[in-house]
Amino acid sequence: MGRPRKALLDRERIGATALELVDETGDFSVPEVARRLGVQTASVYHHVDGRAGVIELLRERVTDAIDSGTLAGVDWDVALENWARSYRAAFAAHPRTIPMLMTAPVRAPGVLAQYETVAGLLLAAGFAPPLVLPIVTGLDNIVLGSALDMSAPDTMWEVSEGTAVPRLAAAQAVTGAARADQAFDLTLAGFLGHCRELLRTGPAHAP
């Protein structure tokens, strides 16, 4: 019998299967990935460094949808805004990965390369090195928090009969389904505006 043209197992299939499980249930285990692929758990470990390795495959698959081209050829603030919007859309498609990926160190080379570009943009713009990671982390928090919010119900405040919150109820009634998008736009604009102010008022330094 000839050898199969395609390997039964590879990192791409492991990552895709783990992502399917997380999208369905919010979590995965290496034995579950193996069962869905029809292989032994030990076979998965031949391709990845345990659970942490699978998490990085998840990160790679989700972030592949981010348009890194948004970081090129424009001013730093425009680049960050465009990148943030693409970044948000990528994670909004897989919101259940967010808690897992936010609490695991980033090791995937392709993802690290995007952060390296962002760090370079900030340094070239004039931000001092101690401010680079706080800005990057702040942007992460805005993007990933908003991506998770996009999977929440349109009506987040359930006002039952007899509950005396008329101003909240009125505000919710006129906001509509665009609440998450409006909140993201507002928060991102405020964040970038503050960063611009740091540069305008003098040397950008860590507080």
UniProtKB/TrEMBL annotation:
Record-linked Gene3D superfamilies: Tetracycline Repressor, domain 2
Name of one Pfam family that matches: TetR_C_1
Top-level taxon of the source organism: Bacteria
DNA-binding interval(s): 29-48
PROSITE patterns: HTH_TETR_2
Keyword Transcription regulation in record: yes
Domain annotation HTH tetR-type: ranges: 8-66
Keyword Transcription carried by entry: yes
Keywords, ordered alphabetically: DNA-binding, Transcription, Transcription regulation
Protein name per its UniProtKB record: TetR/AcrR family transcriptional regulator C-terminal domain-containing protein
Natural source organism: Streptomyces olivaceiscleroticus
